[in-house]
């Protein structure tokens, strides 16, 4: 409600101001905009009833009523069809809940854009205003993959964030644009065991001279990266949805990784302390 009525609320709070409000919004969380009634399902919902609002409000329709020139999109093809030269305002809600992990994005029923694609589209719309603009881009699923104890997912999301930063850099003028890249917190995620230069970040630590996996004092190999706490070990092969880790109880402690491919998307690193989720 705050998002949809941002302009109205601001103008009511401060007399005499006239603002344009939020012109570009892309993300997930569509369920929070829809009434809890299956009649309002979007067609690519996961739940039998997509919306979860119990106040009966349909915030997407409220947004459309406020902005006759606004464009609402919810899938990849509609996103691709946005004319950035003529579109003044757009609301894109591409998933019932969180957007897919980048590694899992191809499995989305209706398709959804990547973070770098959304960054490109947003800049192409906002740069039509010769007074400038402010754009905030968040790669929020880095955090989620870490909580699930899945380094592959977290690092893959980080790579996509780097693509988004590259996109922003290439589509703005450094003489008039300030780009800040920052994190809001860290995770209990570490690199350990003196891995040599070139050691696969998701692989096992290799002996400096031997070229074979180094062994810990318990006689077992260990990975380059790991977590201090969380759900712990999972060997899920090529699974690309990091959240599948929550389907089973925590399995912390040392495991024999001798025959485990720790570089796959579905491998979740060992954790020392068992918790229902890895922590900040």
Describe this structure in words.
The chain is α/β, with parallel strands linked by helices. It has a domain at 21-137. The chain is 21% helix and 11% strand. A three-stranded parallel beta sheet has the order 1-3-2, with helices on both faces. Strand 2 (70-73), helix 3 (76-80) and strand 3 form a beta-alpha-beta unit. Helix 4 (115-126) runs parallel beside helix 6 (151-170) and helix 5 (141-147) runs antiparallel to helix 6. 30% of the residues are buried. The model has no long low-confidence stretch (mean pLDDT 95).
Structure, briefly:
The protein is of the alpha/beta class and 280 residues long. The protein contains 6 helices and 8 strands, in the order H-E-H-E-H-E-H-H-H-E-E-E-E-E. It has a domain at 21-137.
Overall form? elongated
Structural class, from secondary structure content? alpha/beta
Question: Overall pLDDT, averaged?
Answer: 95
Low-confidence stretches: none
Number of strands: 8
Radius of gyration: 22 Å
Major sheet summary line: 3 strands, parallel
**Range of strand content:** 5-15%
Strand order of the largest sheet: 1-3-2
Number of helices: 6
Distance between the termini: 29 Å
Helical fraction: 10-25%
Order of helices and strands: HEHEHEHHHEEEEE
Characteristic key phrases:
21% helix, alpha/beta, 3-stranded parallel sheet, 3-stranded mixed sheet, elongated, 6 helices, 280 residues
Element layout with pairings:
Layout: H1 6-13, E1 24-27, H2 59-66, E2 70-73, H3 76-80, E3 89-93, H4 115-126, H5 141-147, H6 151-170, E4 189-191, E5 225-230, E6 234-235, E7 267-268, E8 271-274
Parallel strand pairs: 1-3, 2-3, 5-8
Antiparallel strand pairs: 4-5, 6-7
Helix pairs in contact: 4-6, 5-6
């Amino acid at each position: 409600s705050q998002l949809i009525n941002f302009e109205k609320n601001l103008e009511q709070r401060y007399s005499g101001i006239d603002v344009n409000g939020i012109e570009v919004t892309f993300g997930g969380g569509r369920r929070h905009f829809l009434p809890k009634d299956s009649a309002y399902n979007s067609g690519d919902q996961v739940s039998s009833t997509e919306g979860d609002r119990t106040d009966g409000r349909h915030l997407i329709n409220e947004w459309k009523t406020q902005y006759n020139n606004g464009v609402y999109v919810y899938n990849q093809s509609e996103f691709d069809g946005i004319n950035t030269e003529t579109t003044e305002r757009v609301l894109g809600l591409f998933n019932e809940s969180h957007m897919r992990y980048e590694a899992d994005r191809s499995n989305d029923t209706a398709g959804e854009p990547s973070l770098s694609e959304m960054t490109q589209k947003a800049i192409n719309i906002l740069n039509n205003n010769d007074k400038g603009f402010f754009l905030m881009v968040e790669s929020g699923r880095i955090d989620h993959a870490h909580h699930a104890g899945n380094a592959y997912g977290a690092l893959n999301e980080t790579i996509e964030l780097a693509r988004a930063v590259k996109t922003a850099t290439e589509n703005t003028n450094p003489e008039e644009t300030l780009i800040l890249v920052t994190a809001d917190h860290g995770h209990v995620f570490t690199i350990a065991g003196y891995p040599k230069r070139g050691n696969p970040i998701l692989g096992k630590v290799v002996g400096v001279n031997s070229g074979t996996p180094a062994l810990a004092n318990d006689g077992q190999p260990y990975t380059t990266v790991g977590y201090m706490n969380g759900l712990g070990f999972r060997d899920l092969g090529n699974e690309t949805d990091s959240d599948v880790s929550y389907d089973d109880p925590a399995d912390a402690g040392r495991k024999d990784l001798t025959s485990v491919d720790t570089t796959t998307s579905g491998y979740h690193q060992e954790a020392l302390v068992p918790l229902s989720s890895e922590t900040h």
